[in-house]
Amino acid sequence: MPMTLVEKIISAKVGSEVRPGQLVMTPVDQVFAHDLSGPLAITQLKKLGFKGFKNPEKVRFFLDHASPSSTVQSANEQKTIRDFADEWGVELIDVGEGISHQIVMEKYAKPGEIILGGDSHTCTGGTLAALASGMGSTDIAVAMFLSKTWLRVPETMRFIIKGKLPRGVYSKDVMLHIVGKIGVDGATYRSMEFVGPAVDSWGIADRAVLPNMAVEAGGKCGLCPSDEHTKEYLTAHGRPQDYQPLAGDVDAPCTFELTVDCSILEPQIAMPHNVDNVVGVTDKKVRGVKVHQIYLGTCTNGRIEDFREIAKILKGNRVAKGTRLVATPASRTVYLEGLREGVWETIIEAGGLVNSPGCGACPGIQTGILGNGENCLSTMNRNFKGRMGNPEAFIYLASPATCAASALTGVITDPREVVR
Amino acid sequence: MSDKGRAWLFGDDISTDLIFPGRYVHLLSNMPELVKHTLCDARADYAGGVKQDDFVVAGNNFGMGSSREQAAVIIKLSGARAVLAKSFARIFFRNSINNGLPCIEVDTDGIAEGDELSVDFEKGVLRDHTNGIERPFEPLPPIMTKILADGGLIAHVQKHGDFAM
User: Fold this and answer.
1) Does residue B145 belong to any structural domain of this protein?
2) Phi and psi, residue A25, nearest 5°
3) Strands (DSSP E) along A209-354, which ranges?
4) Do β-strands A23-27 and A278-280 pair in parallel, antiparallel, or remain unpaired?
């Protein structure tokens, strides 16, 4: 029987052919929590009479949401996590290293694995053809304790992406377009599988936006095939041995199929307060809207390829008066790459500011909380009311290029006017 | 069990950011304080007005977004007997069951603010005693029913030493 990618991954893990809708108990390869989900996970582990991990090499804690700590409380919670990791011999990825999802991609995720994280954007790991899925602290604690979890095998929605991206249009625009089409609950409980000639031609940075935002449509996971680009990425990160080719069968039955021709797309904007509230950048509802803050980075678009595109647009220009630009690299690796390439210099000379690697302003707990009535245009993945710390503010989502172009004018701007 | 409680109405796409806003993250480990802000960005009057065994009633996609488990924990601690919605976001759904807060996928159209509701969990029936509506609902998958009956996932694993599927 032909199988979708998620069915193949789960079948291999449980040792028998699975079908959508089936409930399975499956071993997990990696489990992690971060500074917000970690404290409760530790409390729950202690309630379970925890006396050490069966598989400590599968367990990790990341400190990324407040990086570095933003309050006495967050400092103490991070201390609890550091002490716990130290006591029980599991890896602690400390503040300044970057966002868990980016580091999982760079260092840990392997095609075919099942990865659970105490964060909704854990689905980012699907870029490397791993079934990576977000869960709450209690599920994470139990998965850390038992090295397994229960799952309902999800139905698959197949997204066939074809065509060449036009100038000024990026994978972020493709994903915003998809979420706009299917809605914020269009993929609930399902696996979003991204295939087609466009995906095949993209590198890992372009692909990552798709699985990263699967949860914005309610998806359990988002998956890309593992192919030569995956091999190249894993090799570049010093782990060629982790590569294996892996893809869903093209003739596997799925519950939904959508073909997107990206050659006819224009840059997209998600308007407040839902990710599916999407229009083209030329729509009069967004064109010319005043932007008080530009926020660049996150697990969606905080990679070096994103910042290179931003730097190209900002080079030799100034951020508009009345607009502030905040940039946060997704990881230490991205930070160093940008440093060597002069990307941060360009951003700072243009009038922007650069923060230490991590989640930055996205979760609304530090470094870039918005004022009442202010508009933010960001490369991040969600624009819910209150997301950036203030329910009286408004968040618009776009590609790095649209954000950079808008930084120069101070209003939402079509990047095709500046991208050559 | 079929205790009566009042309906608190919410719309579609209630995110966990609306249930537990990031600006209260300093209360992450302080449930008695955090519970005072339950659902505050969706309805400012909920946390102060909700009574034990009332019901949170919503439209589609309740609990979308962040995996923050405290969103489910504080709804339970606020006194809500269950969340009734047309559909749920999956992480929130698991979190709620893991914390002993029933989530019931049921047609909520026609239920008005303050209506007297009761839920028969065994038979799978929602009753609106104010307007006489009766709605059947599908029971949870067996593993979730068991977790709920055991009082949440931690109690479940304490009792069985494992998942009892």
Assistant:
1) no
2) -100, 125
3) 221-223, 256-261, 268-270, 278-280, 293-297, 324-328, 353-354
4) unpaired
Classify residue A219 by burial, with Cβ atoms within 10 Å: 0-12, 13-18, 19+: buried
- Residue A78 to residues A104, A147, A175, A370: CA-CA distances in angstroms? 19, 24, 34, 25
- What phi and psi values does residue A323 have, to the nearest 5 degrees? -125, 135
- Domain range for B59: 5-138
Mean pLDDT of the region A27-46: 97
Cα distance between residue A232 and residue B89, in whole Å: 35
Quick one: pLDDT at residue B165?
80
pLDDT at B122: 87
Q: Is the complex ipTM more than 0.85?
A: yes
Please answer yes or no on whether B25 and A363 come within 8 Å at the CB atom: yes
| Structure-token match 């243009």, residue found | A350
Q: What is the CATH topology of the domain spanning A269-417? A: Aconitase; domain 3 (3.30.499)
Question: How far does the CA of residue B130 sit from the closest CA of chain A (Å)?
Answer: 31
The answer to whether position B163 is within a domain reads no
The reply to whether A269-417 shares the fold of A5-261 is yes
Q: What is the dihedral of CA A363, A367, A373, A375, to 10 degrees?
A: -80
Closest CA of chain B from A392, distance in Å: 10
Is B144 contained in some domain? no
Strand partners, A353: A326
Distance between A178 CA and the closest CA of chain B, angstroms:
17
Sequence letter at residue A168 = G
Instruction: Give chain B's contact residues with A (Cβ, < 8 Å).
Output: 13, 15, 17-18, 21-23, 25-26, 28-29, 41, 60-61, 64-70, 72, 87-91, 94-95, 98-99, 141, 143, 152-154, 157-158, 162-163, 165
Domain parsing of chain A, residue ranges: 5-261, 269-417
- pLDDT per position as a tens digit, A91-140: 999 999 999 999 999 999 999 999 999 999 999 999 999 999 999 999 99
Pairing relationship of beta strands A30-34 and A59-62 according to DSSP bridges: parallel
Inter-CA distances, A320 with A75, A164, A186, B73, Å: 36, 32, 37, 44
pLDDT of residue B96: 98
Predicted confidence (pLDDT) per residue in A47-93, tens digit: 999 999 989 999 999 999 999 999 999 999 999 999 999 999 999 99
A409 token code pair:
């004018």
Q: CA-to-CA distance for B103 and B111, rounded, in angstroms?
A: 17
Looking at residue B80, which CATH number applies to its domain?
A: 3.20.19.10
Residue B57 domain-assigned (yes or no): yes
Q: Quick one: pLDDT at residue A191? A: 98
CATH class of A5-261: alpha beta
Provide the residue type at A118 as one letter.
G
